[in-house]
Amino acid sequence: MTSKNNGLSAALVSNLQDVLSKRKGVVDDGSAEEPPSTSDVTAKEEEDKESDDDSRPIVLVTNGDGIDSPGLVSLVEALVREGLYNVHVCAPQTDKSASSHSMTPGETIAASSVNIKGATSFEVSGTPVDCISLGLSGALFAWSKPILVISGINQGSNCGHQIFYSGAIAAAREALISGVPSLSLSLNWKKDESQESDFRDAVGVCLPLINATIRDIEKGVFPKDCSLNIEIPTSPSSNKGFKVTKQSVWRKSPGWQAVSANRHPGAGNFMSNQQSLGAQLAQLGRDASAAGAARRFTTQKKSIVEIESVGVAGKTESRVKKYFRLEFVAKEEEHTDDDLDIKALEDGFVSVTPLSLLPKIDPETQAVASEWIYKYLNADQ
To answer: Where are the residues of the annotated region Disordered (predicted)?
Structure first.
């Protein structure tokens, strides 16, 4: 076979000839060649797709509510539809709300691939912080530093001191610790009022801000040393606009309720068959303490007591074991400072609060972040 190279390199011409001959099912010696199998074609298409995606900025998404939560699904679907980003997901396989900045050192956690169209996704048998730490380690993905980490959309507000309990906020904080810009998104979900479609509306509210964030990260003008906590009102589509806010001291009240022994979580919850007995017992203890953050139960008010008889050195010892569940309850409070996150959220604004790694954000970082937010709000979208 001969061909003019038209100014192309010899290596490229050779590659083109090879591809063309294979498409015809004939190699240079004239012998017939079997057509590639369907699996080979699919693998090649996936390879090509991944190669194309490499040129797009990588966005890593996680949350605290679990990988199947409607908030995360709505966000990922919207990011994929944008077509601008190489979207990766690394999120807890179960609800890990109120897990704060906890991690699981010394234990084996599983990362299983999940089919979310247009995104490379894994569910992890760990906490939100585990997910971000693993995702940024280079052990799970081929890269180790995305352009942005987004945590959310969380089902429930994370204003004020609630950030210290939130697994979603902690995931964004872990990204900041690792030097990666991050956003945390939460919807002020209200029982008997909110519905799943509100998450799609919330995404529509936040997407322009996400796009502006990535654009300015690429330009090197996005504020450093802080993460943005974005709180979306209960009715996202009728919000009153964005408002730069300060962190309040508001929090939900932790309420402990006694439960009967037969409602104690089973030993099989969230356990890997590969875990050691000690690791399983440790996991069980964490699951028992965190379960109330995700579920509401009608329980009896008096303490439930279980008596155990334990034989120690030939003696019988009675021990008292009690079971409790934790549920966070929103407090009715009057807030007078319009610049506080919880006040702006209750008034129907989208609250945007800069958070730092310090217990309280320093004035300089607050000023730089606020300036960027005001610039975004005043820019032509």
So the answer is: 24-61
CA angle 144, 155, 260 (to 5 degrees): 110
- CA-based torsion, 149, 271, 261, 263: positive or negative: positive
Whole-angstrom distance, CA of residue 249 vs CA of residue 49: 47
277: exposed, middle or buried (Cβ count in 10 Å: 0-12, 13-18, 19+): exposed
pTM, to two decimals: 0.71
Residue 124 identity (one-letter amino acid): V
Structural element, H or E, at residue 230: strand 227-232
Distance separating alpha carbons of residues 151 and 340, to the nearest angstrom: 22
Q: How far apart are CA 373 and CA 354, in angstroms?
A: 9
Q: Helices (DSSP H) in the chain: which residue ranges? A: 10-23, 38-53, 70-82, 128-135, 167-177, 197-219, 277-290, 341-346, 363-378
CA distance 90 to 153: 14
Query: Could you identify the residue written with the tokens 């937010």?
Result: 373
Distance (Å, rounded) from C-alpha 296 to C-alpha 143?
Answer: 40
Q: Is 155 helix (H, G, I), strand (E, B) or coil?
A: strand
Integer Cα distance of 105 and 60 in angstroms: 22
pLDDT, tens digit, for every residue of 70-114?
A: 999 999 999 999 999 999 999 999 999 888 999 999 999 999 999
